[in-house]
Amino acid sequence: MKKKLLAVALMLLAGCATKQYPQAPAVTAEEAAAFDCRALDQEIASARSVQHEIDETGRFDVLTVMGFVGDFGLGNGIAKSRATGKAQARLHQLSQLKTVQCAGAVTPAGAG
Prior knowledge:
This protein has 112 residues and is mostly helical. It has one domain. Helix content is 70%, strand content 0%. The protein has five helices and no strands. 16% of the residues are buried.
């Protein structure tokens, strides 16, 4: 009986995410070598899109309620935090790469 109670308690405390957040991988050495200024602009736009998608996924909905009931919302909070951190890290890497590779290059009006 104690083992069953312990198993249930561990499952409740484990924190399971009911929402699926997009994941942004770190910039690889191969990507860094292959990206030109135009490709970097596209990747930066894509990274910003991932950030927006994370924000949209994090909005309050039925999955938020289910996550709260299951583990007080911890799983969804952790998943969102990790996804946000990865997206910010990729955007930062791409911005630094652009600064190095595109120094002095002319960028189109409105490009970031």
